[in-house]
Write a structure and sequence with these properties.
Number of helices of chain B: 12
Oligomer: heterodimer
Strand content of chain B: under 5%
Radius of gyration of chain A: 19 Å
Largest sheet of chain B: 2 strands, antiparallel
Radius of gyration of chain B: 19 Å
Largest sheet of chain A: none
Mean pLDDT of chain B: 82
Low-confidence stretches of chain B: 145-152
Largest interface: A-B, 40 and 49 residues
Shape of chain A: elongated
Shape of chain B: globular
Order of helices and strands of chain B: EEHHHHHHEEHHHHHH
Structural class of chain B: mainly alpha
Helix content of chain A: over 70%
Low-confidence stretches of chain A: none
Number of strands of chain A: 0
Structural class of chain A: mainly alpha
Number of helices of chain A: 2
Chain lengths: ~90, ~300
Amino acid sequence: MARVSPTKKEKKKTFRAFLVELGFYGIFVTGYFFLVLHFLFGWLQNLHLHHVKLYALMAIVLIIGQAVVLESVTTWLLRLLRGRSE
Amino acid sequence: MFFPISNSHISPIYLVVIGFLIGILGGFFGVGGSFIAGPALRAVGLDWNFAVGTDLAHIVGKSVVAAKRHRALGNVDLKLGLIMAIGTMSGAEVGAQLIQMLKHAGNVNFVVSIVSIIIYVSISTFMIWEAWRTLQYQKKRRPRAKIPGTAAKQDESSFSHRTAAIQRLKLWPMISLPASGVKAISLWVIVVVSFIGGLFSGFLGGGAGYIRMPMLVYVLGIPTHLAVGTDLFEIIISASYGTFSHAVKGNVDILIALVMNTGAAVGAQIGAISTQYFAGPKIRLAFVPLPLIGVAIVVYTLVTGHKL
């Protein structure tokens, strides 16, 4: 089983980059809470009460859609901060 | 933060942190993490039905992130995942029907608790034994030259002779799984494995990664890293099905799941990348405590009569 062991220097670099990434990501997520989720609250509550099947469908679309966007954002941040080595 | 759908007040920081921790576990081990997320949501006052449904929705999002990352690392066998979807869906339905039957019989909690304890303890015991034996075997042998690239995906298991016997079963139709390095295996073996995974998902809840991941390794002979990635792909299917079903019954607060998912997105990436630094048997050995955490939760529930 061949695994590539990172050196201490690489680990330190990766950890520092991760902390910077968390900072960027934290700002992004805070903005997301207030801008996007705030507007979704009323609409989703209405769907939940009156159109439950549409709500169920939207729940899956939203969670998968958000996951794809967040994965792209975190991958972009990883590349930006750690170069092409990831 | 007020969540109107479930009528609850929960700190978003708490949700992000829980999502982050479960994301790491999911990305590294290929499990949904429902045995932690459910009790964690319950602990902040969410009703049990909302905890179960919302947890499933969060598992979908986290598994999408982790599976995408594993796919980028070449750890997802899409052909296998798509074939398994058939067995997973039908198994989940049969598991849910079994629960309904037990509900009518009036002893659902006791039966499910006992079955889950037996299954979780058996998985942990078997994986300790197998991973330990494999590691001992590797230590005794002369170290091999390290080969970067595709060789890193190869895996070893002291159970491999049994796996080879299963792969030799000539039950038509036989198919090959080139991405996983399996030359020929009966389609029926894959369907049965995925059916059992789906059955446990429907019967015990969650994505059932705790049973599907070991079966992928030991029964189908999939290398551990690919088993983790492919299992996550399966969890997307089974948890999406569960989410829709629970949402129609009014048991999903999608806003809570969306907030949890912001933390899980980072955690799942870290977990998935971390698998690159560990050999298959070590990942399997580290997996052992996860089903035992499930046992602790079930025993607590049985003894005290309270759900965590």
